Amino acid sequence: MCKLILKTENTHGVLLRVVSVISRDGHNIHSLYCAPTPDSQISEMEISIESTPEETTDIQRRLLRLYDVLSVAVAS
Asked: For residues 57 and 9, what is the distance between their CA atoms, to the nearest angstrom?
C-alpha cells in the first residue's frame, strides 16, 4: 500500500478529477483525507491505494498533468 500526498488548488471539482485519474485503471482508494492548508487557496490530500511501484509512478505522472494539482509526493 502506498500513500500519495497532493497539494492542489482549492477549487470546485478537483477531488473528482483526482479520483477519476486513480480509478480509471481500476485502483481502489483505501483511504482519503482532504483538508485546507493555512493558505486558503491550497488544499492537501492524502490518498492510500494498493499499487505496484510502476503503477504508482504512472498515477503520479498523470496526476501532475491536472492543472489543479501543484505537487504529488509518494510515501510508503
From this structure: 21
Q: How far apart are CA 40 and CA 42, in angstroms?
A: 6
Amino acid at 26: G
Contact yes or no for 51/59 (Cβ under 8 A): yes
Length of the chain: 76
pTM for this prediction? 0.90
pLDDT-flagged residues of the chain (< 70): none
Q: What are phi and psi for residue 26, nearest 5 degrees?
A: 85, 15
H or E stretch covering 60: helix 53-64
Domain residue ranges of the chain, discontinuous segments joined by +: 2-75
CB 50 within 8 A of CB 23: no
Give the pLDDT of residue 1.
86
- Fold for the domain defined by 2-75: Alpha-Beta Plaits (3.30.70)
